[in-house]
Amino acid sequence: MAIGKKGIFSGLNHYERDPIMEKERLSQMLETFGNLVGITGIGLDEDNACTISFDGQVVLNLQFEEENHTLLMFSNLGRIEKDRQLELFSEMLEAGFYERARGGPSLGFIRETQTAMLIAQADTRQLDFQAFEALVEQYVNCAEAWIARIGSLSDDSVSKEQGLDKGLDPLFSFDMKA
Fold it and tell me: Into how many domains does the chain fold?
C-alpha cells in the first residue's frame, strides 16, 4: 500500500475543519439556538461577532477566531465600587482558582472602568448543537450569579445566596466540558 504526502488519512477529521465551514456551522448553531429561545436573526456578523441579551440582565458577547477554531464568550458583570473591591476580589480569586482547574471561565477586572468581566472559550471543532446549548446555558447561569453577587454589594437587601439552585453555587459550578 502506498502512502502519499498526506498519509493514510487524507480527509478532514474532527480536529482539521475548514474555518469557513466552521463559521457556517457556528452561525447555524446560533440561528438554531436563537429560534429555540425566541430570538430571531442571531448569527455571526462580518467580524465573526455576535451579541445576545438574556432578559436584559446578561449580555453575552461571542467572537469566533477562525485561525484557531476558538469561540470566545465574554460579559460585563457590573461595576464594583472601590470600597467593596477587596471583599469581592478574594471571592473572584477563589472562584478563578477553582474554575481554572476545571477548565471553566475566567473572572477579571478592568481597572479603567472598575468592572468585573467573565470570559470563557471553547474549541468549535468539538461543539455540536447540544454541547453549544449546554455551554451557553451554563455560562449565562454563571454570569447571572456573579451579576447578582456584585449587585448584592451595593444593595444590602439582596442576599449573597441569590441565584443558588438546589444547593449548587453557580459562582463555582461551570463546566466547559458540557
Answer: 1
